[in-house]
Design a protein that fits this description.
Helix 8 crosses helix 14 (about 290-310). Strands 1-9-8-6-5-4-3-2 form an 8-stranded parallel sheet. Strands 7-11-10 form a 3-stranded antiparallel sheet. The protein has helices spanning about 5-10, 25-35, 50-60, 75-85, 105-110, 120-130, 150-160, 175-180, 190-195, 205-210, 235-245, 250-255, 260-265, 290-310, and strands at about 15, 40, 65-70, 90-95, 110-115, 135, 145, 165-170, 185-190, 220, 230. By secondary structure, it is α/β, with parallel strands linked by helices. The two termini are about 25 Å apart. The radius of gyration is 18 Å and the shape is globular. The chain is about 45% helix and about 15% strand. It binds ligand TUI. The site of ligand TUI has 19 residues, from strand 5 and strand 7.
């Protein structure tokens, strides 16, 4: 499947792995890039030197292109923005904010810049600033989310900009990928499906929790403070939502979640930790290799589009 995204990034399949905090490390990114997609390292709130090490480690595991996600709410965002230039990273995606302050620095360095946006206004602003593409992320996604659904955001952004649009939020197989293409996307970003892979360096409890998730297990914390985060329902989300309803301050609630994602990802505490995952978790029933995910997704997508044309074409 050749699209403007495969051309832009020099990859085989228009499938990008999400830059997930604590999850998107060197082994996962290299596995996705080696499978023909685009692997991403998640900068999250890690110090710049940690990211530099991750970049170098990934280079040892793949010759293919990969990228770094710069999480703009990180206290180290500025230093990380510099490190990706020094390390000659080919692709940068950004999340949870406006990357305006770093754009010219990255563009001057020849880095392909792909901000994650959750609204049409932000997508337009980014196009005017000269970015190469946008990831339009629907509220079905795991982690920090916007309001619009993938079903409405993708066509709205595709109508509003001329640069290629990558769809994210609720995509874990070829059906979701085909749907995203019908809505106007030229690529997909996939997060939760890549957590439940053999290569993801994530505690088995976390992977199993995704595999067991039902449709009603998705919860959002932090809506009242303007920092909504989607994860799987557990003791932590119940406690958070109880305190949120009591009117506890953002700072008090932040304290509750401090380090809680790491606790779930690394220690496997899926009861008191934060199990960030998208709504599509309930459609994921097994642990696969990254290569299986990428190849099966593309094959299923192409088959569905061909079958549709045969059945309904004139
Ligand atoms: O960034 C994400 N997802 C994330 S970041 C993250 S780390 C974290 N952990 C705990 C609390 C908060 C963050 C976990 N998941 N996705 C990309 C994304 N970006 N989704 C929504 C946005 C976004 C939101 C507002 C992008 C821009 C924006 O505002 C634009 C502006 O002009 O400020």
């Amino acid at each position: 499947m050749n699209t403007r995204i495969t051309e832009l990034l020099g990859i085989e399949y228009p499938i990008i792995q999400g830059g997930m905090a604590w999850v998107a490390e060197a082994h996962l990114a290299a596995a996705v890039s080696n499978a023909g997609g685009l692997g991403l390292l998640g900068g999250a709130s890690a110090p710049a030197e940690v990211i530099r090490d991750m970049i170098r480690q990934t280079r040892e595991m793949t010759d293919k292109p990969f990228g770094v996600n710069v999480m703009l709410m990180s206290p180290y965002a500025k230093e990380v923005a510099q490190v990706v230039v020094e390390e000659k990273v080919q692709v940068v995606t950004t999340g949870a904010g406006n990357p305006g302050a770093y754009l010219s620095m990255w563009q001057d360095a020849g880095i392909k810049v792909i901000p994650v946006v959750a609204s049409v206004a932000h997508a337009r602003l980014m196009e005017r600033a000269g970015v190469d593409a946008v990831v339009a992320e629907g509220t079905e996604s795991g982690g920090h989310i916007g309001e619009a659904t993938t079903m409405t955001l993708i066509p709205a952004v595709a109508d509003a900009v001329n640069i290629p649009v990558i769809a994210a939020g609720g995509i874990a197989d070829g059906r979701g990928m085909a749907a995203a293409f019908m809505l106007g996307a030229e690529g997909v970003q996939v997060g939760t499906r890549f957590v439940a892979t053999k290569e993801a360096v994530v505690h088995q409890n976390y992977k199993d929790r995704i595999v067991k998730a039902k449709d009603i297990d998705s919860a959002v914390t932090g809506r009242s403070h303007g920092h909504p985060v989607r994860c799987l329902r557990n003791q932590m989300t119940r406690e958070y939502n109880r305190l949120e309803a009591e009117g506890k301050s953002f700072e008090e609630l932040e304290y509750l979640t401090l380090g809680s994602l790491r606790k779930a990802v690394q220690e496997g505490d899926i009861t008191n930790g934060t199990v960030m995952a998208g709504q599509i978790a309930s459609v994921i029933h097994d642990i696969k290799s990254c290569r299986e995910v990428v190849e099966e997704m593309e094959a299923e997508c192409v088959k569905l589009m061909r079958d549709m044309a045969e059945r309904y074409g004139r």
